[in-house]
Amino acid sequence: MHRTSRRCLSLVAAAAVTISLPLTVAAAPGKNGNNGPAGAGPQGRAKDVQLQALGTFRTGQFDQGAAEISSFDPATKQLFVVNAQSGAIDVLDASDPVVLQRSSVIEVAGQRAVDGSVVDEGASVNSVKVHGSFVAVAVQAADKVSPGWALFFSTGGGYLGGVRVGSLPDMVTVTGDGRYALTANEGEPADDFSADPEGSVSIIDLSKGVAGIDQRQVRTARFTGYDAARPVPAGVRVFGPDVPVPAGQQPVGRVARNLEPEYITVPKGSSKAYVTLQEANAVATVDLRSATVSDLWAMPGKDNSLPRNAFDASDKDGAVNVKTWPTHMLMMPDSIASYRYRGTDLLVTANEGDAREWGDYAEPIRVKKAKLCAADFPNAAQLQSDANLGRLNMTSTSPMTGDCYRRIDVFGGRSFSILGTDGTPVFESGDLIERTIANLIADGALPRQAWNANNTDNDSFDGRSDDKGPEPEGLAIGKVSGRTYAFVGLERISGVITFDITDPRAVRFVDYASNRDFSADNTALEQDGAGDLGPEGIEFVPADASPDGTPLVIVANEISGSTTAYRVQPKR
């Protein structure tokens, strides 16, 4: 147990930052559309909020994934936190959010599922979700290509039962009414790329309760239809080695093996789930009643030659250098959440980016190693210098003409997006995240070494500019005093950036919070002496469910192995 002693950096745009890019909205409906004209600025500005760090629990395990995802139970005032290092769930007493302390541990190894399978030693806990009196846990088998499990425990830690799901269940959630639990079965290839299991979504019917759960209550939404009659929509990426499913598993086509569900959101009252397929740069719609994939669409691309989509592309130019480039960003969303605006469900994605790298297959290449088409890049030699685009990682699947690349596709949007449930673009943050961090540094609110830093090294100024930048990964949405906010975790620089998204046509930056200590040397950093590092999971706790009656944001940090509670309070 630790009390948070480091200063929590918390700033408001109006006081500390001048945002230079215009906000953008979709000009017209339609999938895969481009950003439209500049949107209006804030109207009737409400009082801004800030995050105040309250308490932190530290495992003392550096870079072991000892705090990845959290879920809060308002009835028992406990936090359930995924500890991938121990393969268990740490249960934290959060009755006083200033003093978080571990009260118990939920072990998963040795638990028997209803099909007779037993969770093996070495199995990994990937995700947790509390609903009512039970806790749902997604567990990956020790051999990740084998089917995993969804296990259910009481909030007191007692085992209630478990079912078998698809390979590598990476995320679990429960619908608001408690009717269904869902797992995103990522189905990553074997580490040597000798086999590639099917990606899928498991839908577990809980209408009769968790006690006495049966394997027959599990249905699977699959992508096999896209290997048959249904065409794969334009922009959905299916690529890499075509290897079979693991021995003993039902053979499926390449598309079903290639698509890898990452994260799920189910809007309140909806019978649809929306699932990110990160490496494929896509989102799928799953019908919960029929357990089928009812839609699939690619995320809109991002033209970096436009001023609103500028970014820093080099880790070797020695500067904060946000500018336009002749490149094209693939959003590749990780987390996804949803909220309602004027009676319509909207989706929000954190566009982190990710590459496929297994065995001898490595998707990324440096731009300087790529043969660029002279017709498309007449200044290729200049672009390919290390100070320009040379060091930037691009995907080797970028469009080609003959043996040369006619477009440079890069990983991740360094942004967040708001979309309709059919993929219609509503808002794209463009370069807002990098511009905001750059301005905070220019104003002295952040140290220079924070710029596109890595989360395992305090001497890494500009070190991630060539590779996804600040990496927006975790995401939570919450309502405070009638305003709706998106809390976005920046995995690499280790902070939480907050935006007012009440009106998606007038999105505003309002706060940046971090207790990372960039003045600590790397020895201190590795010995739990540099604050929180690598925010992975973010959860919003509304005031009426909070242990102290105020809205909270809970951040689980995978590199520092720490969990911190922040209070969302009015800016003073």
Automatic annotation (TrEMBL):
Organism: Nakamurella aerolata
Keyword hit for Lyase: no
Keywords linked to the UniProt accession: Signal
Signal peptide: 1-27
Record-linked NCBIfam families: choice_anch_I
Domain Choice-of-anchor I intervals: 64-567
Lineage: Bacteria, Bacillati, Actinomycetota, Actinomycetes, Nakamurellales
Transmembrane parts of this sequence: none
Biased composition (Basic and acidic residues): 461-471
Tagged with keyword Signal: yes
Region (Disordered): 451-476
Protein name: Alkaline phosphatase
UniProt xrefs under SUPFAM superfamilies: C-terminal (heme d1) domain of cytochrome cd1-nitrite reductase
